[in-house]
Design a protein that fits this description.
The protein is an alpha/beta fold. It is 29% helix and 25% strand. The structure holds adenosine-5'-diphosphate (ADP) and magnesium ion.
Length: 351
Amino acid sequence: KCGSTQNMAANIKVVVRVRPLNEKELDLNSRVVVDVVDDKMLVFDPKEEIRPFFYQGVQQPNKNFLKRANKELKFVFDNVCGQEASNKDVFETTTKDMLAALMEGYNCSVFVYGATGAGKTFTMIGSNEHPGITYLTMEHLFYTINQFEKEREFDIGVSYIEVYNENVYDLLKPSKTPLQLREDSKYGVMVAGLTLNNIKTARELLNMLENGNKNRTQHPTDANAESSRSHAVFQVYVKMRYKTSSQLRLVKLSMIDLAGSERASATGCVGERFKEGANINKSLLSLGNCINKLADGSNYIPYRDSKLTRLLKDSLGGNCKTVMIANVSPSSVSYEDSYNTLKYAARANKI
Ligand code: ADP
Ligand code: MG
């Protein structure tokens, strides 16, 4: 049962992914503030530029926009993926091992956390050339299921929903009416009225996710026109029936593309947009709180504080496997965002 605090250390894994500099960051000659030392360690805001910085073959002066004393903070995580890491590499260090646990009956969840533009959706969904970890994980799930097919019968249902403004919406069957959460003694947390799509191959998934993403709630804000203000939750319900005993087991895999973690205050939003920002923070904050309480060994985990944590109540806790992927930009342009993301990730890593 989830929610207990036993063996938490083995059950949560924190991985940081540093994306490559983008065009804009290169054009600005921004300073690189995240130095990936090895596959477990990074230094945030290093004292000296460890590598010379080249743009179009020419070594560039490194502009320190912020002109403050360097923090030179060492962070150690379960894994650090540098800019050269592919989605396949990230998959190998994050969700691949989870599937064995899923087959043993553990609910599993993976989160991508980070500011808008840090690479969350690239990691989760990716593109046709670089399929994200959702596709790679599902492909591996179908492979894994094949290995067990002699002893078990499988039934796979998937759903794709978003949590927006503390409301739950179906991304596969768009409607303005929010869906309600229910708790079922047998199936755990359920979304009332949600239709599960049956899929047999990972390929079928790509179109589905693409269509679902088109339905995600997006609003332009001052901070970033592409800003995504909702949490996208992809869930896989695996029903397995053991052929010898007829015993039925239901496990859930949840993959969550969290909304941008930049603070509402930084986006200069007022009114409706501000309310959105406050609600995004509410779910992110309460996710962080739940993870911290689990780490402290508290008996009371405040799952009920937000929609996201209520939804994930049975997928986040002692006997569930959780992976947190924290995405950051290496550029000084995103100094505060990266710093905040690393601190959030480090707190989760203490577990
Ligand atoms: P987020 O979902 O966190 O807002 P995105 O995943 O949309 O950020 O990434 C922002 C931009 O950076 C996109 O154009 C994306 O293709 C690109 N990008 C992100 N991560 C990588 C990466 N590891 N390699 C190459 N491009 C990336
Ligand atoms: Mg995104």
